[in-house]
Amino acid sequence: MTDPSLLEPYNEETIVSQITTIYTLLHKLSYYNPPGDDNPYGEVIFPPAGGHAINEELCHELHIAPEVVSLMKKIPYTFHGSNKPFLSQSRAFEFIFDEEIQGGRDPQNAPVSLYDELRLDFLKPWEIALTCWMHADDGTSVIMNTKSS
What pTM did the predictor assign? Predict the structure, then answer.
């Protein structure tokens, strides 16, 4: 585990830039499909000016911190990303959908639950799960703490 004293403080601009760089690279490498007749946006949906439209009322009901909501609006998403791994055996959350906002509060159970089994308080309000397992017993959940790093 990394020594917390060596971590840089959380910086939204840096995080958004790095995540966007990853999606841009995967898009350029044709890992994700480009825009086409069946999907005018392609498989990567980059945020418009002002950010993605997400259900901020739901975020408030789930006690998600404003810093997390802001990040959700500014990072790219995949179109039907649950079908394509982002990391080994893991997929990225798509917070433009309500069920993904809910599932993102419990990345350990999100891949297998029917959303009524989720522990909606599993993460702290200032934490965001960027990925979850693709299968019930294997994968990686990347969880970021917006309070520290």
Answer: 0.85
Question: 22 phi and psi, to 5 degrees?
Answer: -65, -50
Q: Does residue 119 form part of some domain?
A: yes
For 12-63, what is each residue's pLDDT tens digit?
A: 999 999 999 998 998 888 888 776 666 656 688 889 999 999 999 999 999 9
Question: What is the distance between the alpha carbons of residues 16 and 14, in angstroms, rounded to a whole number?
Answer: 6
Tokens representing residue 20 in the block? 């966007």
Structurally, the chain folds into a number of domains equal to 1
Residue 49: is it exposed, middle or buried by C-beta count within 10 angstroms (0-12/13-18/19+)? exposed
Range of the domain at 70: 9-145
